[in-house]
Design goal:
eight-stranded mixed sheet; alpha/beta
Length: 203
């Protein structure tokens, strides 16, 4: 596990890069955190849970603080600059691994929006969206292989909004009954769902 600063579009970006011990890395997982203006950081519990799941799947994982968060330079930029931050972090991480390493792109809440904005450039093998903020940002259509997880009692992004977004695309949604936006008390189960559904086999 390595926490460090790398060059980003608006100055330094704080990252944490983890490889899966002695086992051969099967994929790279890029994880984006929730909204910076509402306390979102790379140390968010859902983000950490995603990272643990990916490490257990023998992925190299990289999570980072968007501009203006923690030790990352800059100011909040409505998702535009944050997408550029994610692109810079992805480029750095790819340079640490063999060129053919497949990518899994994961996000929580606002981080889902950023990942979908990056899709034309990142072209991940699989997309993982937890609590996607479809009621706050225009999240485009996504690939049918996308994993979507949401809490039944999410008071930040109502489940009905997510279903209305997913339904026309024919996308399945894994719903955690009685669970809010931050998956309090359900993180172990969230990790299990991610591990069970993510495919690290190259397409």
């Amino acid at each position: 596990m390595t926490t460090q600063l790398i060059d980003g579009p608006s100055g330094a970006l704080e990252i944490e890069f983890t490889q899966s011990g002695d086992a051969a890395v099967v994929a790279l997982a890029l994880i984006c955190h929730p909204h910076p203006q509402f306390g979102g950081t790379m140390d968010n519990k859902v983000v950490q849970t995603l990272a643990k799941a990916f490490v257990e799947l023998r992925c190299a994982t990289i999570r980072f603080n968007f501009r203006g968060v923690g030790n990352s330079a800059g100011m909040f930029d409505d998702g535009v600059g944050e997408t550029e931050d994610a692109a810079a972090v992805l480029d750095w991480a790819k340079a640490q691994l063999p060129a053919a390493t497949p990518l899994i792109a994961a996000g929580f809440s606002f981080g889902c929006f950023v990942q979908t904005q990056l899709l034309p450039r990142s072209q991940p093998q699989q997309l993982v969206l937890v609590g996607p903020a479809v009621n706050r940002f225009k999240i485009p259509e996504v690939d049918k292989s996308t994993i979507i997880v949401h809490g039944e009692e999410d008071d930040v992004v109502p489940l009905a909004d997510v279903m209305n977004w997913a339904r026309p695309q024919g996308l399945p949604v894994t719903v955690f009954p009685g669970t809010g936006h931050f998956f309090h008390g359900r993180l172990t189960e969230l990790k299990a769902v991610i591990k069970r559904n993510v495919s690290t086999t190259p397409r």
